Amino acid sequence: MEGWIKSYRTILDNPIVCKDADHYAVWGYLLHNAAHTPxxxxxxxxxxxxxxxxxxxxxxxxxEMFRIDESKVRRILKLFESEQQIEQRPTNTSTLxxxxxxxxxxxxxxxxxQPVANGCTTIDQRPDNLCPLDEQQPIIExxxxxxxxxxxQECKNEKNIECKNITHTDSTTERKKQKTRATEILSWVAxxxxxVQRMAEPLTEQQxxxxxxxxxxxxxxxxxxxxxxKGATKNKSAYSTFVAFAGRDAILRERKEAAAGKQYxxxxxxxxxxxxxxxxxxxxxxxxxxNGKKLFALRKDILPNV
Length: 306
Fold this sequence. Notes:
- The chain is α+β, with helices and mostly antiparallel strands.
- The protein is built from eleven helices and twelve strands.
- The strands form five sheets. Strands 3-5-4 form a three-stranded antiparallel sheet. A three-stranded antiparallel sheet has the order 6-7-10, with no helix packed on it.
- A hairpin with a 2-residue loop joins strand 1 and strand 2.
C-alpha cells in the first residue's frame, strides 16, 4: 500500500487510543489501511465503493498481525465505536469500518495528488449501507498554489476561467469550531463547577475538544452537574469520570437506543411507562420470539412494512 497519512502529536493525549500499546497499534492499523480515495471493493457478496476513511478487515487479521488475542481486538474496536471514533458493520467473514471525522483530520493534500472527498460519509449514510459512490459527485480540482481545494460547479470561459459557486474545502474549519467550543466548555466548568477542574487530572483542552465533538452543551452541563452532585470530583481523572457518567446517563442511553431501533421486552416497556416519559400507546410489537413472547419498539421507529 502506497501513500501516507497525517499523524498528530496530540494523539498521545488521547486516553482511548493510548490506553495501551495494543489500542495504539489497532488505531494505527485502521488509519494506515483506510481508503483515501473512492475505491471499489467486495463486501458481503456485493460490490461497493469505499469512501475515504473506510476499510474492510477482520478481527482475526488484526490479531495475527499484532499477535493480540482476537477477543481483545473485538473489545478494542467496540471501545473505539462506543467513543464514536469509528463505525463498524460486521458480517460473518469481515467488517466494514469507517473512521469518524476522517476528512477533518486527514483532509487536504493526499498522496499522488489525488482529490479529497468533500465531507464525511459514515456507514449509516449509505443507502442500504452498501451503495456505490454517487456518480454525480462534484469535480474537485487543486488550485495553482497546491494549498487549497476548490469545487468548481460552473465556469464561464475556458481561457480566462471565472468560476461561480466555488466551495473551499478547508479541513481545519471544523476543528477551529471545536477548539472554540472547547474553550467555552472549560470556562463554563471552571466558573460553575470549579471542583471538577481542581481534580488531580482536570479536563485538558484536547479532551474538551473531544467532548465538544461528541456531546451537546446540554449533555455536558447535565453530566458535569451529576459528577459534582455525586461527589465524583474526588476521583483522579475528570475526563474518565465524565465518560463513565455519560455511559450511565439515561437520556444519552435512551437516545442511542432509539437511534439503533432498540427493541424492548414487555417488562422493559412497563418500566419505561412507569417513568412517565411514555405511555403504552407509544410502543408496538415488532417480533414474536420462539417462546411466544413479544418484543416491542417505539412506534416512531417501526418501519411501515414491519
